[in-house]
Amino acid sequence: MRKVYLFLVCVMALSLVKAQDGGDRMGNLVDTRFFDRLFEARYMDKPPVFTFGADSLKRYYFRNFPAFDTVLAQTVSRGDTAMYIRICFSFTVDRNGFVGQPEFDRVAITRNPKSDQARTLKYFNSQKDYFDKAIKQLFLKMPQWRPGLQSNRPVDARVEDYLQIWVGINPPSGT
Length: 175
Hints:
Blueprint: H1 2-22, E1 38-40, E2 49-50, H2 54-64, H3 68-77, E3 83-93, E4 99-110, E5 119-120, H4 128-138, E6 145-146, E7 148-150, E8 153-167
Parallel strand pairs: 1-8
Antiparallel strand pairs: 2-6, 3-4, 3-8, 4-5, 7-8
């Protein structure tokens, strides 16, 4: 009988340790493997946030992106003016807030600066390697971010963002 009692005490103690290790605030068991994957930032409860604010992030992009001259020269030479040009890219923010794995996605064009839709400029596809290197250089000195939270736990997240510039004489009013 002692062995059965000792066995039950051990099982209860192990379950308590497991509940403290992998449980949420309410004491419910949570499968921690769920949090060991890469989340899409736009679908998260709380996506990663640049520590110094959105305006400072855009200023950082403008200050450190090394390929503006190439983008402007090609868009003007092809006649794509009086439009907004977007350099689209993605990167990861890990659960500690460190940025990594930057990737160039595409160069796109739109007339509305707040639109979610933009038409891809295919003549930039031949320079994908050049822009991939430029995006990697942009993220070399990126400061640490506040990590994204899923169910109040910090997780790794993939962030999609873009750098947008107006190519033309005067941008439309009201934007």
